[in-house]
Design goal:
Layout (H helix, E strand, L loop, with lengths): L2 E5 L7 H12 L4 E4 L9 H4 L3 E3 L8 H4 L7 H5 L9 E6 L14 E5 L10 H5 L6 H21 L5 E4 L2 H11 L3 E3 L20 E4 L8 H11 L3 E4 L5 H7 L4 E5 L3 H10 L2 E4 L7 H8 L4 E4 L4 H4 L6 E4 L4 H10 L7 H9 L3 H17 L2
Parallel strand pairs: 1-2, 1-4, 2-3, 4-5, 5-6, 6-7, 8-9, 8-11, 9-10, 11-12, 12-13
Amino acid sequence: MKVAFVHDWLNGMRGGEKVLEVLLDLWPQADVFTLFYEPDQVSETIRRRRIVVSPLQRLPGTRRGYRNLLPLFPWAVGRFDLREYDLVVSVSHCVAKAARASSPSRHFCYCLSPMRYLWSHYDQYFRSRDSGWLNRTAMAALQGPLRRWDRRACDRVGRFAAISRTVADRIARAYSRDAEVIYPPVDTDFFTPADAAPADYFLAVSAFVPYKRLDLAIAACNDLRLPLKVVGKGPLEARLRSLAGPTIEFLGWVSDERLRDLYRRCRALIFPAEEDFGLAPLEAQACGRPVLAYRGGGALETVAEGATGAFFGEQSNECLSEALRAFQPGAYAVSALRENALRFRRERFEREFRAAVGRSLTGS
């Protein structure tokens, strides 16, 4: 088969890009279509492929301000000519699912989430002071038309798969479509425990965007004078740095080897987001370290309370601080943490994904 992947944008190696890497190994000759592409920000596995980029890439200022072009995304994804491909796989959290295959039966969407900034997390993106007056005003006018377009675009998809039950529920509410659940893969061969005892710091690994709620982790560790290392970057970096006290250390994005070392040596991972799925908690567990997570979203499917971590019940500084005071990182067995992560290993994902695509193409 001639196969094409459509990915919203390729400007970093986050969870969606790690999924794409695995899928490209399954279909070694596939081409990749994307709105924006920064070769120096993605892996060699992705760079080796033929990458077709939208016309928006040529506009000035897109390296930092690409999100401001959201009203143009529907037009840009519609420009991709995919008629010659036997199979189109979109890996979508924004508009990739709106790509037009030769027919909907040839389009399989692996949905990371319906657009968060239109549906599940609109308030966190556009009703906080961080969003800016112009963005709030523009999105108040655009939300309705973009939602209507987003629903219509789903007609271009033959079958949906979701990365979690949380996302499958969002797809049902936003699009009135069913989606089977195929959990993303965790590289449990790479993320492994170490023999050394953990150091005395907590860890947060996340893009710096509103719904990730890194402000909570920073505020709680400020209040309790706990050392916190923060891995990631994003548009909220200046504000998060302004909140940080002397026990908070920002590391930016780090290499996989450095990240593995940070997981292995942390007391625990703090995960304050209501996440679609969340690879970081499973990478930490694969390295033998527990997770303190918000009780919501994908963490409910990846963290086993009492066995591999604990939850806090509301996204507030007070609630997280209380949970941190009670949290006992040493109470969790490395064997149990590792066993839970192995449920999400790569081999399981590859088997389930191939089978789901096969059913989609045959209509079974």
